[in-house]
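ok here's the first one, seq then struct tokens
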Amino acid sequence: MAIKTIQKLIRLLKHKNKELNNLIEHLHPRDLAELSEDLDEEQKKELFDLLNDEEAALIIQYMEDFDQVSLFKVLEKDRGSSILKEMSSDEAVDLLSELPSEDAQELLNRIEDTEEIEGLLKFAEDTAGGIMTTEYLALPENMPVEEAIIRLREVAVEVETIYYIYVIDEQNHLIGVLSLRELISAEDGTLLKEKMRTNIITVDIELDQEEVARIVSRYDLLAVPVVDDKGNMRGIITVDDILDVLEEEATEDIYRLVGTSEVKGTDLINASVTHVASKRLPWLIVCLFGGLFSGSVIGVFEETLQTIVTLAIFIPVIMDMGGNVGSQSSTVFVRGLGTGEIEANEVWKYFFREVKVGLMMGLICGLMITLATFLWQQSYILGLVVGIAMFSTVILAAVIGILIPLIFWRLGADPAISAGPFVTTIKDVTGLLIYFSTATLFMDMLPT
């Protein structure tokens, strides 16, 4: 269906067919945004020339960052600034932050009132201030509900959401909140301060966006107010922005867990080979040197390995089991920190719980590999060596899988960075050391 639609859209654009407007009217802005990804620059310009500024702004908000930048490069600056004025303040700021600074400044110069947008541009893009919008409804505490409803009707099309009405005092301090239901169900003559709830969930303007998302998710909010250190209301963050944050943060963590960083602003389909390789190579180089270090460990025990060649058979299974356990431990721990399921004061409790889990898994896996080795090689000493190595490696992998991300987290770095190459490298080296040290200890008793 999508292929047929894009083919039809391209054909109508080419021939400037009058059916084009009819097609556009029947498509959702999200669908048009996706279809525009398959158009070349000239076709995109032709498509947006058919739209008014409000329609264009609505479609652009559904486009990926790199597609927005591509579009604004081909639009005339006057048209671009006109569309920018129709966008919500947070969406406009996101777009401007992706454009080259010269282009962004030129667009701002063509807009008369830029104080609101420039104010938002001052905040880091991954903070509450960077993702909030200043288009919200805040009313004085002494306003009667019937006046509030009239005011709501007047500004409904201009604000981001009408589901919450925020109540402020004369100093612009946020002192209460009402839901739309509470407002329209109140009797005429009732003041807002008599109906408002004062137990307000707020976020600080400098708070990290991931923590904001956690708060919105925890309290099931449609929007959360943003306040500064003086308690003044500065904006709101709506749930649609939170969904974008959750997707971005989850994607970032997944990529980092496997040792890459091709996240924000990357077109996965059309990105250059050089760009993609540059994002992946740093971590692969870490693994490369880690592998060389692991190889040097084997070299140290070369005499043991030459004497008892059978030991080489079990190297892959011990390293793979350690890798799987380490990956499980680090992934669950990093995700627990990210979702807030593991609180800061519970980290060590979780760590020692994981050690116990490692002991149990190590004991079970160690006994199983001991029995398998004995039945296969008919040597209980070899089975004992492999079993001890498996037991120790699994326990150590579980500890390393938690400890390395924990150290990064304590240092203020993203623990997901460590969960891939660092955990893998350290686990490989320690696993081999355990295995060959145990074999060397029992070497006189092992079959040659």
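and now the second one, same deal
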Amino acid sequence: MKLYAFDVDETLELSGGPVRLADVVRLRKDGHIVGLCGNWAVVTQSWPEWFEIFSFVGPMLMTKPEFLKQLSTYVPAEEYVMVGNILGVSGQSDDQGAANAAGWRFIQESDFARGTR
């Protein structure tokens, strides 16, 4: 079982990104943990069934790297993966930097949309 943390803005389809919610749902159905590490309010306010798929939302009062470190410290998984943007290349958030700082594997949103897992 892997743990996937998804950025929202310019990552998920409901916020201008290429990652289809159906692909996120498939990860969950395949037994992985999926959650949000970004503008989670967009998801909770626009998708009434969000809680059936996402196991966590954040970050709230901490940085993305801190949030990711907390997850990997307290939620056991085989691998930790952040899906999101490369600052200045594919979005406005430094998700690649957050993943690197937390020791997580990073997948750019466009690569995830093309099938990289």
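notes on #2: The two ends are 12 Å apart (CA to CA). The first helix runs from residue 21 to 29.
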